[in-house]
Every structure is written in structure tokens, then in C-alpha cells.
Amino acid sequence: MVKFDEIVLRERERKLSISRVPKEVKERFIKLAEDEFTDDYGLTLKFVLEQALEYQKVKKFIFDNILEKISQTEQMNSNEKEVQHG
After folding, report:
1. CA R_g for the chain
2. What sign results for the dihedral spanned by CA atoms 22, 23, 29, 32?
3. Per-residue pLDDT of the chain (86 residues; tens, 9 = 90+)
4. Could you give the CA distance from residue 32 to residue 41 in angstroms, rounded to a whole number?
5. Which residues of 28-54 are buried (b: 16+ CB within 10 A; e: fewer)?
6. Which end is more exposed in the chain, N or C (fewer Cβ atoms within 10 Å of the end residue's Cβ)?
7. Short-list 37, 39, 69, CA closest to 51
């Protein structure tokens, strides 16, 4: 049987308090929670965090590919100059 103080302890572990949230961010977060997650802030936070982490991975992939293409282009241009002057 679960004791009352164990339930209270579990409930405390689930709470999250965030301070210094800009008003517009807070309003957008609440609106997202209302519209998409039936006011469930926990699921909303999980969604936002997952989206942010996924975005970071995609952004890194894109920029790494752009840098690789730039490097390849520079190498090709360098090789062409060598052939022309060689």
C-alpha cells in the first residue's frame, strides 16, 4: 500500500517551476498547450524540447553539408587554376 507522504513526494518530483520567462514566450507556450495538448504543460514542454533537439541535429547536418560543398567547390576551382597555369 502506498503511503500518503510517498504520494506527496512523487508529486513534488513532477513539478517544474521556471522563472524569468519572457511574457510573449509564456503566452505562446500556453496557447500551444491549449491548442495542441489540451492544456497539458508537461506534454507541451516535451514536444518543444524534442522539436528543439531535432532542429539542432537538422541544422548541423545542413551546415555540415554546405561547408562540405563549399570545400569541394574551392578544391575544384583550385585544381582548374593549376591545370590552366600548369
Report:
1. 25
2. negative
3. 666 666 666 666 677 888 899 999 999 999 999 999 999 999 999 999 999 999 999 998 898 888 888 888 888 887 777 777 65
4. 9
5. ebeeebeeeeeeeeeebbeeeeeeeee
6. N
7. 37
